[in-house]
Amino acid sequence: EAGVAQSPRYKIIEKRQSVAFWCNPISGHATLYWYQQILGQGPKLLIQFQNNGVVDDSQLPKDRFSAERLKGVDSTLKIQPAKLEDSAVYLCASSLGGTGSREQFFGPGTRLTVL
Amino acid sequence: GEDVEQSLFLSVREGDSSVINCTYTDSSSTYLYWYKQEPGAGLQLLTYIFSNMDMKQDQRLTVLLNKKDKHLSLRIADTQTGDSAIYFCADNSGYSTLTFGKGTMLLVSP
Predict the structure, then answer these.
(1) For A33-83, what is each residue's pLDDT tens digit?
(2) Which of A81, B8, B27, B80 is packed most tightly, with the most Cβ within 10 A?
(3) Which H or E element spans position B23?
(4) Is the omega angle on the peptide bond into residue A108 within 30 degrees of 0, that is, cis?
(5) Is the CB of residue B30 less than 8 Å away from at least one CB of chain A?
(6) How many whole angstroms separate alpha carbon B14 and alpha carbon B91?
(7) Which residues of B touch A45 (CB under 8 A)?
C-alpha cells in the first residue's frame, strides 16, 4: 500500500513570498490532517478535513494560511505571505476516519525555510 | 489547554532497556499514543493504549498507563542502535485530534 505522499520535500523562500505544499493521502482515507512541526517541538495540528469538509481549523493562522481539499482526495496548504517564524516541517497525515480508525499515517513532510 | 510533557533526552547502551516517560493533563483522553520519528522522516505509530487499560505489551514494547497520575511510559526491551530516534507521546483531546509532547531523543550507543 502506498503511503502518504508530499511535495516538495524541501523549500527555501524569502519572507513575504508565497508557498504551497501538496499532499496525496492513502487511497480511501477520508480524514486528512496538516501539522506544523517547529524544530525541537512536537507536531501541532493546523487543520483537519473529513472528506472535503473542514472539521477543525482552530489553530490555523487564517490571515496567512489557507488549505483546501477539493474532491476529498488531494490537499494543498498555502502560506501567503510567509514570515520567518513559519520555518518548520509541514506534515500531512491521513486516517480512515470514523470511530474505529485510530491510526494516523504520516507523510515524510516538507521542510520550509524562510529567510 | 491540554498539555503533554516528556523528558527531552535519554541515552542507553545497546541491549539495555529504555524507559521513556510522559505526563498529560487532559483527563478526557481516551487513547494515548507513542510515535517514533527518524531523521528526515515522518512519524510512525509504534503503539497505543486505551485509557481503561493499564498495560499493553507488543513484542519489545511495553506501555504502562497510570490514569490517576496521568502518567504514561514506554519501555523498549533489548534496545538496539536502530531504535535511536525521537519518540513522541500523544493523546487525543478531541474526536481524533492529537496533542503531541515535544519528543524524547533516544540515543543508543553500541
Answers:
(1) 999 999 989 999 999 999 889 988 999 999 999 999 988 899 999 999 999
(2) A81
(3) strand B18-24
(4) no
(5) no
(6) 29
(7) 97-98
